[in-house]
Hints:
Chain A has 52 residues and is mostly beta strands. Chain A has no helices and three strands. The radius of gyration of chain A is 10 Å and the shape is globular.
Amino acid sequence: xxxxxxxxxxxxxxxxxxxxxxxxxxxxxxxxxxxxxxxxxxxxxxxxxxxx
Amino acid sequence: xxxxxxxxxxxxxxxxxxxxxxxxxxxxxxxxxxxxxxxxxxxxxxxxxxxxxxxxxxxxxxxxxxxxxxxxxxxxxxxxxxxxxxxxxxxxxxxxxxxxxxxxxxxxxxxxxxxxxxxxxxxxxxxxxxxxxxxxxxxxxxxxxxxxxxxxxxxxxxxxxxxxxxxxxxxxxxxxxxxxxxxxxxxxxxxxxxxxxxxxxxxxxxxxxxxxxxxxxxxxxxxxxxxxxxxxxxxxxxxxxxxxxxxxxxxxxxxxxxxxxxxxxxxxxxxxxxxxxxxxxxxxxxxxxxxxxxxxxxxxxxxxxxxxxxxxxxxxxxxxxxxxxxxxxxxxxxxxxxxxxxxxxxxxxxxxxxxxxxxxxxxxxxxxxxxxxxxxxxxxxxxxxxxxxxxxxxxxxxxxxxxxx
Lengths: 52, 405
C-alpha cells in the first residue's frame, strides 16, 4: 500500500522504494527502518498516512 | 557614527536589528492588514553572531541597526534558521559586507540556501540538538522540519534563555513596540490566530509533536524571539498554549458562510442560511461575502469555527472564480473537523452547487445537508429551504461540539 506524507504530500510507493534513501524497490512501508525520513521534507514515518 | 536606525536591546548581549515593513498588505496571498516585521537578532558574544536577516529591500535598515552597536565587519557567525526570502533575501549581500567566518543552517537549510543563492558550499550544516560555542555563550539548534519549511530550525541561547523561534510563535504585525507585553492582547491574539491559520494549519499534527519536543528539552525559557512580530518576555505559556490548542483543530460553535453573488440572489440565500444556522444552534455566524472578505480572513475565522457553508452562483457552467480561489486556498490549509453544506442561485444548468459539494467532500468537510439551488431569484420557498439548510448544519455543529466536549 502507498503512504502519503501529511506534511508535504510526498507519496511512498513500495514498488519504487526510496533508492536515494537506501530503500530497495519492493519494500513495504511497514518494513522501512524507524529512522527513515520523508525524502522530500525530512519528517518522520509517524507523519505518514495510508493512501486511500 | 550615528545611524539612522538603532538596535533595540533585548537582553544584556542580544539586540534586535530587524526591519519594520509598515506598508506590506499582500504577503504571498495573505492579507497583512497591519504590516509586518522581519526580525533579525545580534548576539554580542565573543563570537559576534547574527541570527537571521531580513527581506532584501530592508537590508540597509538592518545594517544600520547593526552598525549602531557593532561594526558589521565584526560579525563572526550568521545563523539562518529558515531559508525563506523574507529572512534570507539579503544573506549573500550581508555575507559579502560582513565576511563572517561561518554561516550555519540545518542540513535541509544548506540545500535550500544553495538552491536559492548558489553560495558554493559556504554554509555549514548543523545537526538537530547540536551546540555551537560562541566563546562566552552557547547556541543549541533544534530542527523543526516542516514548521513550516523542510529547513526550519530554532536556536536556543543558553544563559540568556532566549529561544529564537524563526516563524514559530510569530505574527504579521508592524509596530514600534518590540515586546508583546506592550501591545494589546486582543490585537496579539487576532494576529497570532491569523498567522497560525494561514501558515501553520496544514502542519498541525507536527505542531503538536514539536511543541512536545521543545517542552521535553526542559530549556529554561526567559524569552521567545520570533522572526515576525513582537518578542515574548512575560507569560510565554500564553502563546505556546494557544498554538497547542489550535493544533488540536477542535470543532467550535462558530459557523462561517462564505459566498459570492452576481445579482444579489446568492447573497439573499446566504443571509437566510445564516439565520437558519443561528436557529439551529450555532453559537455565532460569520457571513463573509468574498467580494469584500479576503481569503486569508476566511481562513482565520475558520480556525475557531466548526462549520463551513459555501455559496456560489453558476457562471458559464462554473462556480464563481472568487469561490474557486477560496476553495483552492482552504484545501491547501487542510482545515479539519468541519461540517458543511452548499447553496447558490443559477439561471440554467446550475453546476456550481454540485462542484462545490465535490470539492468540500475532497477536503473532508462532512456535508450534512443536500445543497440548495434557486433559479434566478430565490422565492419565499427557496429562502425557507436555505434557512432549513442552515438549521440542519447548525444542529449538526451543535452535536459535534457536544460530542467533542
